[in-house]
Amino acid sequence: MVITGCGRCDIRNIGVYVARGSRSAHEVMRRIASVSSTAGQTIVIVLATLVVFDLLAYLLLPGTIGVAHFAPAYRHSRELRDGSLYAPEGAGRYPRYYHAADGMLGFDISPRTEGVARISNDQYQYHIFSNDLGCFSHHQRADYETGRPYVYFAGDSFTWGYAAYASKFATVWEKLTGVLAAQCGVTHTGQRHQFDKFNRVIQAIGVMPAVVVVGFNATDPANDAAYPHTTIIDGYEVDTVHVKDQRLVRADRSRLERFVGASVQDVQRKNRSTRGQVVNFFKVYSLSANILNRVLRNGADVVRRMTTTRSSSLTERDARSEFGATLYTYFTADDTRNRYSTDRRADANKAAILRWRDHAAQNGYRLIFLLIPWKDHFGDRTYFAQVASWMTANGVSFIDLTPVVTQSGMSRDQLYWQFDPHFNEAGNRMLGTYLAGLPELKPGAVKMPTPVTSSAAVGSAALRR
Predict the structure, then answer these.
(1) What is the pLDDT of residues 412-437, one digit of tens each?
(2) CATH no. for residue 458?
(3) How far apart are CA 411 and CA 401, in angstroms?
(4) Residue 177 sits in which domain range?
(5) What is the per-residue pLDDT across 3-41, written as a single tens digit (0 to 9) for each?
(6) Cα–Cα–Cα angle for 396, 139, 206, rounded to 5 degrees
């Protein structure tokens, strides 16, 4: 029997073809099973390897300093649980409880505390702490009561230290000169806050510093116009002053507390969810998962660098608050460059500087202001022209660091954090080395301290009036 259209095909040939097809399908299925088995075995081996790697890393890795910059929660289960690592919406990104509310200053560094700070898009993490005076320093109050001469460093976040303690510019200066340093900068402050804290610290120590070095930043006029502008709610740093219609507006405290409280509860709710617990488990215990997460984030950072031309500024970062714009929009960094000498919004800052100048003259210590350029102002040698002109006219000693930074032989990217306007560790070390070479800050120029008199604190009270 011949099938029409098949030619030489017959029923027997069809059976052969079917049999051959069946054997081919079976072979394909066998190979698929073999590949699946091999893939399964590979996956098991990889997972087992990762588990062993994570176990050994967790048990044997000597400290977390080597992985802190990409794994902020690794081996920090307590800090992750109590909210010390991640701030809720509406709060500053500093460790919970590192700052404390203060009736006069608004807020200050808590004495004898510690935490973990994260900066530059969470790419860098380091240990922070404070002494019994509420300063980011290893030295305690007793170290300054021994009669040794010391130099007091004041300022905002640049002075406080956007770098590990050993790399802070005041620490570098102290190591190179051998002179005792009182490192009492407080982030998010201007000269009014800094001068009040200075008076408090020297009253506690009982002896005057030989020299006071104050870091001046482009945001200081805004800080001083709004001072006191920040408090602590539930352990987090929260601004109490915002800007609406170009005016400084003080927020209702109870409303702030409700807003921050709701944000904290939202974070806690996410952490208690099944997904949150699983994610947090890997954050704390799995180094391999943290490495994978950093690789993925690095890829996202590459895209961000391609689409972002400026560093993240405080003004852009914080202006989303429902209470109004950040206080830094009241008198911006551009205003400091273009309007400092004539704009009345800078008057509070000028008054604080003049008060400090008079206090130094009355109490026999040398006062030096450091004009510190932001990342976005790198290379702009005229940025502080108006500030420098005003300080010169009013007998205020200062050093404009803009040309110092430009002539350091290092590029902007080498001196500043990638996603932050502050000096990185290399920038801090550069500045510390420069200061150590200044004649007025060398050991021979730092004289013995003098006792603090009862009238020394008058400047602080007068400034508050």
Answers:
(1) 999 999 888 999 999 999 999 999 99
(2) 3.40.50.1110
(3) 15
(4) 77-258+325-464
(5) 444 545 555 555 555 455 556 666 767 776 676 777 778
(6) 60
